[in-house]
Amino acid sequence: MYAVLATGGKQYKVKEEDLIDIERIVGDVGSEITFSEIVAVGEEGGELKAGTPTVAGANVTAEIIDQYRGKKLVVFKMKKRKGYRRKKGHRQELTRVKISAISA
């Protein structure tokens, strides 16, 4: 069984025991969280139940494994022959979760 969950403005296709990196959510390492915004639930090679916009009564339970920061991205702007240069960096705050249960 798999589910498509929406969090942090993105959608993730997950199965049980999957490890995924999502945008930072509040919680301590080792705590359980529940995602209720489930876009679709289905079986591999079987029926897909899509929501409008979400599947009613579907939940995904996960455990927070780690809270960390992603690798640094450098944003560099330049206009040739004008002396214009701007350099900025960004590191995204991320949470690693392990999917423990999917309920439709």
Offer a quick outline of the entry:
This protein has 104 residues and is mainly β. The chain contains no helices and 10 strands.
Describe what this molecule looks like in 3D.
- By secondary structure, the chain is mainly β.
- It has one domain (2-103).
- Helix content is 0%, strand content 62%.
- The chain is built from no helices and ten strands.
- It has strands at 2-7, 10-15, 19-23, 32-35, 38-42, 48-50, 59-69, 73-79, 84-90, 93-103.
- The strands form three sheets. The chain has a four-stranded antiparallel β-sheet with strand order 2-1-5-6, with no helix packed on it.
- A hairpin with a 5-residue loop joins strand 5 (38-42) and strand 6.
- The chain is elongated and about 60 Å long.
- The mean pLDDT is 95.
Key features of this structure:
4-stranded antiparallel sheet; mainly beta; 104 residues
Major sheet size, sense and barrel closure: 4 strands, antiparallel
Percent range for β-strand residues: over 45%
**SSE string, helices as H and strands as E:** EEEEEEEEEE
Rg over CA atoms: 18 Å
SSE inventory with pairings:
Blueprint: E1 2-7, E2 10-15, E3 19-23, E4 32-35, E5 38-42, E6 48-50, E7 59-69, E8 73-79, E9 84-90, E10 93-103
Antiparallel strand pairs: 1-2, 1-5, 3-10, 4-7, 5-6, 7-10, 8-9
